[in-house]
Design brief:
By secondary structure, this protein is an alpha+beta fold. The chain has 4 helices and 4 strands, in the order ββαβαααβ. A hairpin with a 4-residue loop joins strand 1 and strand 2. Helix 1 packs across helix 3. The two termini are 29 Å apart.
Length: 125
């Protein structure tokens, strides 16, 4: 089974949890983006994965080409000659997408099923 979905809007990386004297919490912006990922993923497929089915995850993150760049540099970006090197990094992109798709934080079951995770950062319009 193959599932594809697109999350519209600006990309947000997974932020570190905040720790106070009494409580540890996830920042609001991160929680909201995880909810958006969860909502988008749930509405993208009807079936559930089999319990023993291996999972191959491919994430492609598109970053907009800055408007201030020259036409030559924009053309290089759109031809994949120049790739994004700004934040968020690939690790934080993967974390927020995977955590958003994992309701109730049942990580053990999900991590056991993953056989491959690929994250690509690319420039696009």
């Amino acid at each position: 089974m193959k599932v594809e979905f697109t999350i519209d809007g600006p990309l947000i990386g997974k932020a570190r949890p905040r720790v106070t004297r009494t409580v540890t919490y996830t920042p609001k912006k991160t929680s909201q983006y995880e909810d958006l990922v969860r909502y988008t993923a749930i509405n993208s497929f009807d079936e559930c994965f089999d319990n023993d089915e291996p999972v191959d995850v491919k994430i492609v993150a598109y970053f907009p080409v800055p408007k201030s760049w020259s036409k030559k540099r924009k053309a290089l970006c759109l031809a994949n000659k120049e790739l994004p090197t700004k934040m968020p990094d690939a690790d934080n992109i993967g974390k927020i997408i995977m955590d958003g798709m994992n309701p109730k934080r049942k990580l053990n079951k999900q991590l056991k099923k993953m056989v491959e995770v690929r994250i690509k950062r690319d420039m696009g319009d």
